[in-house]
Amino acid sequence: MGEIKMKVWIKALLVLIIVIFAIKVSAYAASGTWQTGFAIQSGSMEPNMHRGDMILIQSPHRTNIITYEDGEMLNYKSLNDYGDVIAYQPYGSSRRILVMHRAISWIEKGEVMSDGEPAPHEGYITKGDGNRYPDQLNSVTEPVKPEWVIGVARVRIPYIGYLLSSIRGTLLICAVIYAAIVGYLLRRKRIFSNPK
Known about the structure:
The structure is a single chain. By secondary structure, the protein is an alpha+beta fold. Helix content is about 35%, strand content about 20%. It has a domain at about 35-165: Umud Fragment, subunit A (Ribbon). The protein is built from four helices and eight strands. The strands form two sheets. The protein has a six-stranded antiparallel beta sheet with strand order 1-2-8-5-6-7. It has a two-stranded antiparallel sheet with strand order 3-4.
């Protein structure tokens, strides 16, 4: 009997690995990026995104980024306001904290920015919906180069980010899925072992 239960636990682990792999591959096929979502960590995008929200993104190579200015002209809204919200790594550095703010406008090299300085290169001017000033007056002093952008926000799922933003939350979700698989396999084994 113990050997049968051990086989069920191992089989459940293999099924869990297949399920996780299938989810990752499906998410990549749908979004074009392996990093499909991010948890919102600050209130800079309120009222349209909140701390703890999970934001699902699409690869910037699979879409055209529409700025707030263009969104107003085209009547295009994303996440309750004009233009797209982009996720980018400041200065293209993976060591910096990822920023998810709205692309406000596009600026060419040499054009005067909000701070009165000429732009050192072309790129997006970005701003959190809840912030008063553009990022280029605060933490990121240069326009956001297209190659710094790792995704365009497409879907907001409230509160899930709290659970998925920690290793414990991810392990909890995997444990629940694993327990469901084990339960299903044990029940199935019992039904086939004791048919009525």
